[in-house]
Write the structure tokens for this entry.
Amino acid sequence: MVHYLDHAASTPVCPAAVSAMTEVLTEGFGNPSGSHRLAREANRRLDAARASIADGFGFAPGNIVFTSGGTEADSMAVHGSLRRAERRRPDRRPQLVCSAIEHHAVLDPVVGHGGTTIGVTVDGVLDLGHLHTVLGHLADADAPVGLVSVMAANNETGVVQPVAEAAAITRDLAPDALFHTDAVQFGAWHDTAELADVVDLMSVSAHKLGGPKGVGFLAVADGVELPAQQIGGGQERGRRGGTQNVPGIMAMAAAVDTMVAERDAQATRVRALRDEMVERILASVEGIVVTGRSGPRLPNIAHICFAGVESEALLFLLEKDDVMASAASSCASGAQQASHVLAAMGVPDALARGSVRFSLGYTSTPDDVDAAVDAALGAVLRIRDRG
Ligand code: PLP
């Protein structure tokens, strides 16, 4: 039996999403942009899905631009904001600003454009003072800021970020900038309605909340003109050309409905399982650090650094015991590289190299926790004995 503890990477598609998707694949295959009865039927389904997804996240249907997932939504936010700022001030090069712990879908285009990253505390929380200073300097220099992007919760550590505070600082010091939040991890566990009121742009991905991969959306607040990055076809009110992924969107809508109905109960249940797992690992394994424990965290992520252990070796042994987790560091061109998130938090490289993310989800059980605790203890002892 597999103990799947990698829900933050992708959570299983929920039964309601599977049946919604199957129905569209077998029966509702019309192109929603067409004019005959089957096309109109597909369009009606799309409208209904859009309305329920928007409602689930605190937006209106017209705010939702369907995308191929979180990466495209993030990319649309960054590049669209950049184009918008260039149009507004053609004489000046727009500045892009994001937290140093963003997902690469935001971080890479921002850094690639020469943007500024805002630091985090040792607990992995955005340094609001740093954001204030950076935006203050840019304002003094009359530099137009195209975008400020702060994720709602980090995908490695699960640490929840002070998005409303960051948005308020942005409104104050860079009123022309768009404020974006990547809510890909946060949205599966928390109501986003309050965030929806303070951001211009929000990214969401279906496969983190019980929908399929390859579908998500960017919510664009009322009155925000975001130049399209993909044109032709005029879909999504000209904001994203291309025939919509109707089966994926219908499945996402069903997953969102299920998630909204069960979210609070699941969050309480999963948090208890996660906390028990962490306490038991802490009690049985020496030399470990649990990341970001002091502040608000998503209920499902446990990010643990094991001193003197390489995460690759640990994951290999965990998998032998049918425990599927993931490394919080990325492996680029064969060489283990410390994660940019842990580096930004100042976690020493030697500790960061032994970091593992266990992430739970709606299918997690006490058996999974037992298996993870036993496997982690056994694996660490074996690795440390060898060393
Ligand atoms: N943003 C965050 C915070 C994520 O965790 C992920 C996926 O891991 C993405 C964006 C990318 O989403 P997608 O896999 O749908 O492209």
Observations:
- Confidence is low (pLDDT under 50) at residues 329-335.
- The radius of gyration is 21 Å.
- The first helix runs from residue 15 to 26.
